[in-house]
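REQUEST FORM: STRUCTURE PREDICTION
Request ID: SP-0412
Submitted by: Lab K.M.
Chain count: 1
Length (residues): 387
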Amino acid sequence: MNLKFNIKEKLEILPFAQLYLSLSIMFGTWVIYIPHITDKLNMDEGQLGIALFFAAFGSISSLPFGKIIVAFLGEGKASLISVLTVAIFITTLFIAPSYYWLCFFMFLFGFNSGIMQIAINSLVATVERERKINIMSTCHGFFSLGAMISAGFGTILVVLLNNPLLHILLALGLVILLQIIYKKKIHHIINNSIEEENTSSKSAIKNKRLWLIGIIAIIGMVSEGAIADWSGLYLKDVALTNSNYLGLGYAGFSLAMTIGRFSGDKLSSRFGAWQIILAGYIFAFFGFGLVLLGHPLISILGFFVVGLGFSIIVPEVYRLSANIEGVNPASGIAFMASVGYVGFLTGPVALGFLADHFSLQISFSVLLVSVFLGLILSSVIWFKKRS
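STATUS: Completed
RESULT:
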């Protein structure tokens, strides 16, 4: 695929990139209010972990239906509808009257977000194939950009509005407006090679190389999900950060993710995929070391460094999965999207369990160990590629 395309083509990416932006604006707003919602419903860390489990369970439950729904509606319509439903169910988390209602709404959020992940990544894969361009990394960059905006600017709105429900409703209104603006650019897009995709999906599931890449993705997505859901509480309970600045950990992480992902294509073409992945794990390992020092400013800096590392890992994983012999590129990407997103949602659940039985510091120490394992695995693969 040609990585160099003109400004007109870059503008044509916006209808698809805004889907990722919309998701992260909603999700990032939820993230900065997690401490508020846990206090409102008198939840401890274990209960939050269980609530997050319902989101993960919902996501896993949706995977068998995701491709069926996308095939029935078409990639364009499925993407628009699923982004709107996910945005609505994230909003319901703010009005949950009890812990049990929160768990129910988390399941619905997870179920719809699983479908959305398949829909929007299949949509981008279809556009890439039809237009012969590579936009996956850029689109994921917009997810990080949205998270940075929602966590960074959102932290300011926390102080100015002092009203969580109004805040999330403003974010919902923005997402709805974006879908209205770009509807005509998206809703008609349909993958015309469904039969080929279904055949290739079977080979994707059986492909050992794809599963190996999947392990690399899961480690990255588990950590990304954990930082999204637990960074605020970590800064509050471990680093003892002022409550007005609890969103800065995720904001710094998202800023670094945005910087890395928008420059990822150039770095990949210069150094190669596995060298980029190895470098990413080195950054992530060092960043988690800073986070574990437990000082407010140093921990926030640590989240930033971790973001630099993971920013260049996940897009490279998608790129590798789209270039495996015997596996259709779109099927490889859909497989990786499913595996990675399950890791994104189940990681926070595991951290919640560890935090409830031990401490949040132990939970983040486990993330450090998992990143070290990813560093070893990617090092072995890189050395084999060189020899």
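NOTES: The CA atoms of residues 279 and 359 lie 29 Å apart.
Reviewed by: T.R.
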